[in-house]
Amino acid sequence: MAPDTESKTLQSAKPIELLHSQPSLFFANLQPILLLGTVLFSFKSLVADPVRTLLGLAPTIAIVQAIYCVVCLPSTGDVAAPTTKPGQKKKAGKPGQDIWAKVIPTFLSFTLTIVLSAPLLYIIVILFGAPLTTHHLHTLLFALHLALLTTPHLYYVHGLDAPTWLRLASLQQPIDESYGMSLGACVGAWVGAIPIPLDWDREWQKWPVTVVVGMYAGAVVGKLAGGYLFKGWKIKLA
Amino acid sequence: MDDGEPDSSAADELKNQNKRAAVQFKAQHALVVAFFMLLLVFHALGIYLFCSGFLLSRLVLQDRSQCDAPPAEVQHGYTTGSMDSGCWHPKSFDKAVVILVDALRYDFTVPFQPRPGDEQPHHFHNALPILYETSVEQPNNAFLRPFIADPPTTTLQRLKALTTGTLPTFIDAGSNFAGTAIDEDNLIEQLYKAGRRVVHIGDDTWHSLFPGYFEPNLTKPFDSFNVWDLHTVDNGVNEHLFPLLEPDMQGRWDVIIGHYLGVDHAGHRYGPDHPAMADKLKQMDGIFRQMIDRLDDDTLLVVMGDHGMDVKGDHGGESDDEVEAAVWMYSKRPMFGSRDAESVSPPLTAKERAVGQIDLVPTLAFLLGLPVPFNNLGQPIAEAFLGTNTDFHNLATVSRLTSAQIHRYQDQYARARKLDESTTSTTSLLWRQASIIYEAARKATHSLSTAEAGGVTDAFNAYQAENLRICRSLWARFDLVSMAMGISALIGTFAIIAIYAHGIGADRATITPLLLGWGAAGTAVGAIVGAAVGLIPSLSLIQLSAFGAATGGISATLIGLWPARKILKLPLPRTFWGSLCFLVTLLLCIGFASNSFTIWEDEQLLFILTTFGVLMLASSLGQDLREDRVLGAANSVSFLVATRLSSLSRLCREEQMPNCRSSYYASATSSTSAGWQLSIPILVFAVLPSVIASFFHRTRNYQGIAVIWIGIALRVGLGLIAVFWVLDAADDNGWIPSISESSLKTSRVLLAQSVLALAFAGGYAIFIVASPLLEVKKEEAQPEERAIAPEPLQPGEPIFTSLDDAPQKPKPKLIIFGYANTHGTRYLLLPCAWIMALQLLQKPMGQGTLALCMVSILNVLEIVDAIDQRHSALGPTLLALMGSYYFFKTGHQAALATIQWESAFIPLKTIAYPWSPLFVTLNTFGAQILCVIAVPAISIWKVPPKHPGLLGRIAGAMATHVLFYAAIAVATVVEAAWLRRHLMLYRVFMPRMLLSIIVLLLVEFVGALVALVGVRFSIVSVNEVFGWPGT
Q1: pLDDT in tens, B795-814
Q2: Higher pLDDT residue, B252 or B985?
Q3: Residue range B987-1014: mean pLDDT, rounded
Q4: What is the Cα–Cα distance from B1007 to B932, expressed in whole angstroms?
Q5: B105 phi, psi to nearest 5 deg
Q6: What average pLDDT does range B145-171 have in this prediction?
Q7: CA B173 – CA B171 distance, rounded (Å)
Q8: CA pair distance B681, B591, nearest whole angstrom
Q9: In terms of pLDDT, which residue wins out, A185 or B566?
């Protein structure tokens, strides 16, 4: 069972380090506060009118995430990959010269998030048992938020390199701050689904309030845990 | 092994080695099966002990009320003890016709009341107006009241309550299929002893309850369980009942009991909201009109329902729709009255002015001049005794006599059970108060005034009501000692299985004989010791022997592990997948302590299965080999889609309303399938065999007998099943009026029986005799197969000779197609035989989901291979989760009401033992059965033919599978015991507990006797071709 060439790259990966600059450190610590604060601040309206609230929050979250990408993370080209892969077709921008080298990957990351991640996550959320015939907007907006919390920074950092994405999808990428946030958001949303069936008759038990809150809390916890506690860990699926 | 031609002595030696290995395997295999049966015995003992303490029981007193011994002295000179004028009180009627309309719900009898959200009348509304009409137009001749049943609302329990006046206890509920004679005081026996001639016509349950009490010449019993037959019983009752009402026959009987079943059967078959129900109720309406016409002045006519029905037409539980029946009494002479002007006309809903079903007992007893049965707890129905001039005095008298009888019964019961004063003190207080009021009123004036009589009645009724309340709680007596014994046996067995599955670091099959020996010996010794202790009087022999056997067996098995202690480890999860399985099982177990999670179990299982699916997809994507990656990912996606697709099949339980919409049947108020659902069996017929075949194809195992079974027999079987359901729909909807219903039924039953014969006789014959699904080709060219063959092929090995007549000449290259998955595909023939029988017994929607379950099982086999988790807990646990999930998706819930009784009539016309219960079992637990049969395939999927230690692996997988169900059983049993005073005990926790213990026993039974026994044939057949491991 000789591992083929792909599997060699599957095994070699390093956690992503944040950019070492003052604004980067500042914003990396501000981001969880912003995310949690936004959700807690709008919790009441989220319960009252989830669709409108989630729709209204989406641009804010997108901007927070975009700033995070631009300020804190190395874009695909920046990172000195262990073995420079030929697979960086899209955004092989000249490292760090002008602002466009950061804005264009960011823009592409968010485009991919909306056209690729959100629909995919929508399908996955439906598979998990989200209502199929009703609440389409609720589910779609939840998937959008989940996509915003999980994928833009991954696109920004890793590009569209297939082996890397296989590693990311199969949980074999070593944990770092951005990957931890993505995983944390997913686990948080999973845990957030647990209180839904309880017969407490609370307004906040309605779809998708609990999973949204769980997702944001999970993202923040995951980001902190991934950035400090579990940095460099690898999940052993086998 | 040399590649030249082996000489004959070496071949002989090899043959002998193989023979020895085969004998050794067969012996080990038999012991493994026996070990699983021993575990089944442990579980059965634990469950017996727990249930005998948990399921409620009531002490039956043998006392009988005597005609000449009223419970209190009777006032103003009425001479008691006369059968002719009335035992304790003057009788009102000489004769009675008592008509029981099974499942006559109260809202069937009253005019439709529009409510918000329910503005239009349903089929069952306004179809039976006669009862309401007469009660409104002639209130002195007729009255109609809601008639509330005490759950369980099964006919047998109801008949007991309607004749004895006492409360049912859950221990009786299981005996609905084999009713046994009532051995406490009851109306029928009182009538019989008073020399009245009782005629019974209809449901034969009465005859098992009251054997020998009915007039033999006039009585006509009918089989009651053929629920698909709406008319035979009703027409039979009419045919035999109406002649008795003719004047020349009037002298031949005193009481007629007629029991109509059509309404109940229409409910079971179609649900209440169906034209067939309207027709049935209209027919009943006509029958009662005729009866009224033919009634004479001295005869009382009673019409009542024994229970109601839920929205789907089923009953058994305690929802409002199930307990709200109707009672109506009619007399040609004006005899009845009402308390006040407001209560003259019948209540429009069952929520107002309801009477209990046990109230019928004292009412009928006094009206017919009988003593009130000794164990009665009901009170007389006011309307029957108030008379035309609102005679409260009369009502007070009968109320007082009834209460006095209850008081006498209570004294007797307290003495028999040695109860302390505290449990009965509120009742004795109320009894003293009522007696004081009565005495005071009587002393003041010789005859009671209306107001005083009303007060006396109320006081006695208060006593009766409080007493009833106390009795309800009193009879919820749990035997904590027995329950604790059962729980400890279940936990001990759980520990054994956990160690056996995950704590043994060597080949399980070699340790099993040791454990079995110790366990069996311990069980025997324990049983003897327990029996010896049990011989001490005042201790229960059976209980102690059972506990002795369980404790002895379990501890001896654990001792049996001692010699093997070096290879033992703690049975804790050590890998990602093991931890996930552990976590999920633990979460489910904890969830069963909450009624919400128990109610929404189906949705949770979807969530959990999807979690597994997504993670398996992720894991597949991380595989090194491209082939594993693609295969694993494709099957994971298929698994996810199949799971979500089958989640669209829902049958909601009552507690899920209004957040759930059933899709299993045509509508929420029906139990027939919708027209479009007929396309499901046809689709399954067209697609399923090809899908299964494709899994054989992938490793080139679609050869020989597999083509015959999957390509032809399975297709034919599924085709016949589709035809069956088309015929069934044709019968339901009258599509082919030219063919009579009976010939349709005959052809349907024949179809079903031939499918069963094909599945079991044909399927097993093929499974037992089949040789491995291989093809051997002589070829010079390079092999094209993609199959993973970890061992190089060994051309010319002499063992291949047993494959039909493969040439012995070693020269040409032999290519064995299908080598890679010989074991897996060979064994898979067994689930493929069972799927046919299981499909037959499902409703069309269930067939679709069960087919998806089969596809998911195959997906899981491939995924587990692709991500190389053959030896982890993943596969067996996942299959157990799927078994539980598809239980819900085949139209079931953890509630008595969702049992699809009518599935017994798919292959049979009438009830036949033991077949009918067997078919209902196969229908109910089809998913669990299919999944447990698939468990061995996990361990042998794509392993080389000569892989050593397969039996131990299979035993481990089976033990892991059983471990899941055992965990759920332990959790629900402990939680049911813990929550035994919870409001939702009978609605939620107890049904779930019963479900999990039944499933546990069934899965163990099928796992040992179908799956593990099947393993023997498949492994022997493969190794006879390839040689045994180690040779």
Answers
A1: 444 444 334 444 444 456 77
A2: B252
A3: 94
A4: 6
A5: -80, 150
A6: 82
A7: 6
A8: 35
A9: A185
Q: What is the pLDDT of residue B847?
A: 96
Say if A236 is an interface residue toward chain B (CB within 8 Å). Answer: yes
The answer to pTM > 0.95 is no
Q: What does DSSP assign to residue B885?
A: H
CB of B183 less than 8 A from some CB of A: no
State whether residue B737 is helix, strand or coil: coil
Nearest CA in chain B to A169: B618
pLDDT at B6 over 60: no
| Minimum CA–CA partner of A128 in chain B | B607
> Phi/psi class of residue B534: alpha, beta or left (left: φ > 0; alpha: ψ in -120 to 50)?
alpha
- A203 within domain boundaries: yes
Q: Is A83 inside a domain boundary?
A: no
Contact A197 B597 (CB under 8 A): yes
CB contact under 8 A, B620 and A170: yes
Interchain contact, B648 vs A167, CB within 8 Å = no
CA distance B885 to B964: 13
Domain that holds residue A174: 16-77+95-229
Candidates A170, A173, A182, A205, partner chain B, best to mutate (most B CBs within 10 A): A170
Q: What is residue B476's predicted lDDT score, i.e. its pLDDT?
A: 58
A2 CB near a chain B CB, below 8 Å?
Answer: no
Cα–Cα distance for residue pair B325/B347, rounded to 1 Å? 13
Chain B residues whose CB is inside 8 A of the A7 CB are: 624
* Cβ-defined contact of B576 to A170 (cutoff 8 Å): no
Name the pLDDT band for A215 (thresholds 50, 70, 90): very high
State the best of B603, B621, B643, B661 to mutate against chain A, taking most chain A CBs within 10 Å: B621
Residue showing tokens 């139990």: B671
When pLDDT is averaged across residues B26-50 and rounded to a whole number, the result is 96
What is the per-residue pLDDT across B312-371, written as a single tens digit (0 to 9) for each?
887 877 788 889 999 999 999 998 988 888 888 899 888 888 999 999 999 999 999 999
State the sign of the Cα–Cα–Cα–Cα dihedral A149, A154, A156, A161.
Answer: negative
Which residues in A lie closer than 8 A to residue B594 (C-beta atoms)?
Answer: 198
A212 within some domain: yes
Which residue in the set A128, A129, A171 is minimally distant from B618, CB to CB?
A171
Query: Is B622's CB within 8 Å of A10's CB?
Result: yes
Strands B775-778 and B814-817: antiparallel
On chain A, the residues whose CB falls within 8 A of the CB of B647 are: 129
Shortest CB distance from A237 goes to which of B619, B629, B648? Answer: B619
Lowest mean pLDDT among A138-152, B77-91, B255-269: B77-91
pLDDT for A94:
45
Tokens standing for residue B13: 């030696």
Assigned domain for A133 exists: yes
Percent of chain B with pLDDT over 90: 52
> Of B642, B578, B570, B608, which is closest to residue B850 (Cα–Cα)?
B642
- Terminus-to-terminus CA distance in chain B, angstroms? 10
**A175, A95 in Cβ contact below 8 A?**
no
| Interchain contact B595–A (C-beta under 8 A) | yes
Partner residue opposite B600 with nearest CB, options A3, A167, A197: A197
Place of tokens 């077709």: A89
- B615 contact partners, CB below 8 Å, separation of at least 6: A237, B580
Q: How many CB atoms lie within 10 A of CB B561?
A: 19
Token pair of A230 as six digits: 């579990």
Q: Is A116 helix (H, G, I), strand (E, B) or coil?
A: helix
Measured CA to CA in angstroms, residue B341 lies from B78, B138, B338, B346, B493 at distances of 31, 14, 7, 11, 65
User: pLDDT at position A203, please?
Assistant: 87
Cα B80-B85-B88 angle, rounded to 5 deg:
35
Q: Which of B637, B698, B627 is nearest to B867 (CA)?
A: B627
Domain count, chain A: 1
